[in-house]
Design brief:
Oligomer: heterodimer
Structural class of chain A: mainly alpha
CATH architecture of the largest domain in chain B: Orthogonal Bundle
Shape of chain B: globular
Chain lengths: 308, 275
């Protein structure tokens, strides 16, 4: 990704740039299907979102008959509503536990361990982790619902070592869905880090070892600094992916019991469709978009400053 | 020193194995439950393995039609994505204009946007355009949602094709589209396959988009119709659910195997993403 612009310039060096303006436009013509689709189905909805968030639009009731501008009412309502702050809080917990701590650390750990393990073990673990990733979202959700259930495998294991079990989906639903998301998403971080680690020249680590740096010190002072970029990129990408997880949680708990695992996407869905409050739902969507946009911009800046 | 190396290798292997087992256990459940007529929720090998669950779900309503719908929906959308992405990547990769950089940055920015958040306004848009519950509309939206990432990856792969061959073609009077079709695409087909397969796998697992935009049971793809196993009448039949899950998962597993064996795909993708 660093080399975004560089190949373009070498390519452009070979093309005659003395063409008239019309010809230049014609050359860019192949972009039009992509731009058209993105304008209609991506930019359009986002603009519509900005508009609808400030109205009382609804599928039933007064908001359905005549839509009118209500200013910041939706946002005021959101930030003073316990359910909304609850969902923000849960989204934060879900993202920190499952993406930033879980997937990221486990992915890094796996890729580091895989470098010093035997091939059979490496292949077995790699296949298992990637297998969990390739499964469709809903299937993964069912597998893990079964795993965390009162009669499920986790409790069988806990009983076997003498620990008390419980119905995890009722007792600690947000922890259960977070663990489920770790199970499902770790492969991505593992692949990113494996690719990054494979690019570190062997000599660097060997010379650090010669100088007497032990395992942990080598990791902290030599290996990790060399993959800082990969770490930042990976953190940003998995955070963005995790913020918008819907199917996994919906299929496992429907946001329940009560609202104990209702993250922002599920809250938005409930408000907009179960309760038909489109205006309010889009206001929440706008908050989500804004959060995503901020992360996305930080990510872009990071890439850009590195490329420059 | 060598003894310590051995020890650390052994420790790595043991820790890895333990993690691997945790990842495998839920997967084992689906395998065992699918051949168990009285499957429960825990991992246990059935006393009388049977294919009855598969026979029970292999009918038009439960399996064939949803899978076919999924193939039409995801196949159509992945192809549309690919055609648009290749067309868009060509000028972005080959010509330098002032427009390229802002466009690519916008594309990269879009890859980060949570599509889930856009779904409420998209539903509104679909109501306005009368596209709710149409396969065509859903295909177009799914294609658009994966376009930014596909454009980005395709351009990265296309940048790897040297320009000199095309220059020769241009000298011989071939137009840009002809050069793209006859020279660039044949040279980057592994890249194309990687993007196409990844787009398809992503769509095949996508639940939220078809769940929102399609309504009629006869149009629902496999990712959504799986919910029919949870009727209003209490416990679902876990054995059949497991069998259905396996059938629904098989296409993406095969595609993934193809990708990793023939194309080194996942690894290449990790490399392309890590920046």
């Amino acid at each position: 990704m660093t080399t975004t612009v560089a190949p373009t310039s070498t390519a452009a060096a070979g093309t005659p740039s003395r063409r008239p303006r019309g010809a230049k436009l014609v050359r860019m013509l192949p972009l039009s299907p992509a731009i058209g689709l993105m304008l209609v189905f991506l930019a359009g909805p986002i603009i519509y979102c900005v508009y609808a968030a400030f109205t009382n639009m609804a599928l039933t009731g007064t908001g359905a008959a005549n839509v009118k501008f209500v200013g910041l009412d939706n946002f005021r309502k959101a930030f003073s509503s316990g359910a909304f702050t609850n969902s923000i809080w849960l989204t934060l917990v879900f993202t920190v536990i499952s993406a930033i701590i879980g997937q990221n650390t486990l992915g890094l750990g796996l890729s580091l361990l895989m470098r010093r393990s035997t091939k059979v073990v490496r292949n077995f673990v790699g296949t298992a982790v990637i297998g969990a990733w390739v499964l469709p979202e809903v299937v993964a959700a069912y597998l893990l619902s079964a795993f965390f259930n009162d009669d499920g495998t986790l409790n069988v294991m806990l009983h076997a070592v003498g620990l008390p079990g419980q119905d995890w989906l009722y007792a600690a639903p947000i922890i259960a869905v977070s663990l489920a998301n770790i199970w499902r998403g770790t492969a991505f971080s593992m692949l990113v880090y494996s690719a990054a680690l494979s690019e570190i020249p062997k000599e660097i680590e060997e010379s650090a070892e010669m100088d007497g740096a032990g395992g942990w010190r080598r990791l902290i002072f030599v290996t990790l600094p060399m993959i800082t970029r990969a770490i930042m990129t990976n953190l940003m990408l998995i955070t963005l992916q995790t913020l918008s997880v819907f199917g996994l949680i919906y299929a496992m708990t429907r946001g329940g019991p009560g609202t104990k695992s209702q993250t922002l996407p599920l809250y938005m869905y409930e408000q907009a469709f179960s309760f038909s409050q489109i205006g309010y739902g889009t206001a929440i969507a706008l908050v989500m978009l804004a959060i995503g946009a901020v992360f996305s911009l930080i990510y872009l800046r990071g890439l850009n400053s590195e490329a420059a | 020193m060598i003894a310590r190396d051995r020890m650390s290798k052994l420790a790595s292997n043991l820790v890895l194995l333990a993690i691997g087992v945790l990842f495998v256990l839920p997967l084992l459940w689906v395998l065992f439950a699918s051949i168990n007529r009285t499957a429960g929720l825990r991992v246990e090998f059935p006393t009388h393995p049977t294919l009855g669950n598969f026979r029970a779900v292999l009918n038009t309503d439960t399996t064939y039609r949803p899978v076919l719908n999924g193939i039409i929906l995801c196949g159509g959308a992945a192809l549309l994505t690919m055609v648009c992405a290749v067309l868009a990547a060509y000028p972005l990769s080959r010509f330098r204009t002032r427009f390229n950089r802002p466009f690519l940055l916008t594309v990269l920015f879009c890859t980060g946007l949570p599509i889930t958040a856009v779904m409420v306004p998209v539903y509104g848009l679909f109501v306005q355009l009368n596209l709710v519950d149409t396969l065509g509309g859903t295909i177009m939206f799914m294609a658009t949602a994966s376009l930014p990432f596909a454009i980005w990856l395709t351009k990265t792969f296309m940048d790897g094709v040297p320009l000199s061959l095309e220059e020769a073609a241009w000298v011989d009077g071939a137009g840009n589209m002809r050069a793209l079709w006859a020279i660039v695409l044949p040279l980057m087909w592994p890249g194309i396959a990687v993007v196409l397969i990844f787009t398809f796998i992503g769509m095949w697992g996508n639940f939220f988009v078809p769940f929102m935009l399609l309504l009629s049971p006869e149009r629902l793809p496999a990712s959504v119709s799986i919910f029919t196993f949870f009727g209003q009448y209490g416990e679902p039949n876990y054995g059949q659910l497991a069998a259905y899950s396996l059938i629904y998962t098989t296409p993406v597993l095969l595609l993934y195997l193809l990708l990793s064996r023939k194309l080194g795909g996942a690894f290449a993708l990790g490399g392309a993403i890590k920046g």
